[in-house]
């Protein structure tokens, strides 16, 4: 997806909204200091999925589960009241 050239580089999205992300992308990693999309732990993420707060993942094979970035962004907007 190419962003039109008239949009300044610093306002272009880093990811396309249909990007698929895995848990290491979503959650922070306290061991490595790697930030995630959300400042939460893996256990919190899986608890949110179990409770229905976060969207269910999509199994794409074997043990690999992914989420649409747009679904996570929509969830955070609902949670923040925007």
TrEMBL record:
Highest rank taxon of the organism: Bacteria
One Pfam family linked to the record: Phage_AlpA
Protein name (record): AlpA family phage regulatory protein
Organism listed in the record: Castellaniella denitrificans
Taxonomic lineage from the root: Bacteria, Pseudomonadati, Pseudomonadota, Betaproteobacteria, Burkholderiales
């Amino acid at each position: 997806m190419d962003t039109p050239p008239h949009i300044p580089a610093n306002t272009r999205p880093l990811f396309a909204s249909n990007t698929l992300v895995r848990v290491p992308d979503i959650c922070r990693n306290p061991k490595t200091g790697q930030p995630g999309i959300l400042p939460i732990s893996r256990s919190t993420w899986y608890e949110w999925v179990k409770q229905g707060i976060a969207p269910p993942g999509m199994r794409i094979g074997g043990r690999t589960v992914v989420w649409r970035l747009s679904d996570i962004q929509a969830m955070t907007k609902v949670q923040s009241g925007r």
